[in-house]
UniProtKB/TrEMBL annotation:
<dbReference type="GO" id="GO:0005743">
    <property type="term" value="C:mitochondrial inner membrane"/>
</dbReference>
<dbReference type="GO" id="GO:0006099">
    <property type="term" value="P:tricarboxylic acid cycle"/>
</dbReference>
<dbReference type="GO" id="GO:0046872">
    <property type="term" value="F:metal ion binding"/>
</dbReference>
<keyword id="KW-1133">Transmembrane helix</keyword>
<keyword id="KW-0496">Mitochondrion</keyword>
<dbReference type="InterPro" id="IPR007992">
    <property type="entry name" value="CybS"/>
</dbReference>
<dbReference type="GO" id="GO:0048039">
    <property type="term" value="F:ubiquinone binding"/>
</dbReference>
<keyword id="KW-0472">Membrane</keyword>
<feature type="binding site">
    <location>
        <position position="68"/>
    </location>
    <ligand>
        <name>a ubiquinone</name>
    </ligand>
</feature>
<keyword id="KW-0809">Transit peptide</keyword>
<keyword id="KW-0479">Metal-binding</keyword>
<dbReference type="GO" id="GO:0020037">
    <property type="term" value="F:heme binding"/>
</dbReference>
<dbReference type="GO" id="GO:0006121">
    <property type="term" value="P:mitochondrial electron transport, succinate to ubiquinone"/>
</dbReference>
<dbReference type="InterPro" id="IPR034804">
    <property type="entry name" value="SQR/QFR_C/D"/>
</dbReference>
<keyword id="KW-0999">Mitochondrion inner membrane</keyword>
<protein>
    <recommendedName>
        <fullName>Succinate dehydrogenase [ubiquinone] cytochrome b small subunit</fullName>
    </recommendedName>
</protein>
<keyword id="KW-0408">Iron</keyword>
Amino acid sequence: MNKLLFADSAGAPWQKVYSNSHYALAALLPASLVSPQGGAIRKMAEVGLAAGIPAHNHIALNYVISDYIPRGIQVPVRAGVIGLSVITALGLTKLALGGPGIGGAVKELWKKK
């Protein structure tokens, strides 16, 4: 739990997840946008995005906390970030598996009415 709470200083494996998530997200979002609806590639991209976005954001927000939040309140703020990350992961998973998908939701932003 301590590594999750202090994800920015949890060691090399967490650093590796953060740095490699840039590349994964850069590949998964276009795959989600251009793959056919209901296809296996799209479903895999959607699930990857639903896991990758919250993981990337969780570690990045912990860096922000370390840099900008006073030390006395960092632990409660970090606990809030864990809650935010869990809610984000659940919402994106529901969207990816039961809704139009993350790519489908992004496409809806540009859809003319």
